[in-house]
Amino acid sequence: MHVLAIMGSPRTGRATEQLLDQALAGVCEAAPQAQVKKIRLGESHIGPCRNCLACRDNLEAVPYAPCVQHDDMTPLLDDLARCDALIFATPVHMGHATSLAMAFLERICWTFAKPTGRVLAVRGCPVPRTAKQRTAAVIVVSGVVPPLLRRFCDEATPLVRRTLKDSLNCRTVGSLYAGAVERRGADMYAAAARRLGKAVVS
């Protein structure tokens, strides 16, 4: 089993990465044979989508359509195609995923999906290019807003879930909102992060 961990914070070693590492510890406990790879988006050069639509219009490519940009996203496409499970962690900035995380999500949309889906009367919605099924977990961290007020702060979790489902055929097995970590600390959520890691490989 291949597990890919995406760290969407520009800061290393802080709450988001600490909780992602706890989730990966849960993965290793539940599936010692799993091959794990962690990607720090803050250490990668991944440009924003140029909206050229070359990948979207390539309907035949499997498991993904190549992107015209050649940056650090290029080798990640093979990692994403190979993975069986994915853990995505990001802080919330202004209630949304970080700009690093958003660039990554934009770049996987039409590379791993094609516009052949339909929702009600709307045609051209993304559907995965392959039938490979994956599991996913989402970790979202807020420095100030506590879990009780999550609905006012967390636009990131539903966006990540939808994008991973539409592009990579991921079934999200759970999410963790670690709120008010500046006051509470990340350790308060460590056990929940470990359980999430175990769930993604169960």
UniProtKB/TrEMBL annotation:
One of its GO terms (molecular function) is oxidoreductase activity. InterPro entries: Flavoprotein-like_sf, FMN_Rdtase-like_dom, ISF_SsuE-like. Gene3D superfamilies: 3.40.50.360. It comes from the Bacteria. Keywords: Flavoprotein, FMN. Residues 1-109 form the NADPH-dependent FMN reductase-like domain. Transmembrane segments: none annotated. Signal peptide: none annotated. This is Flavodoxin family protein. It comes from Desulfolutivibrio sulfodismutans.
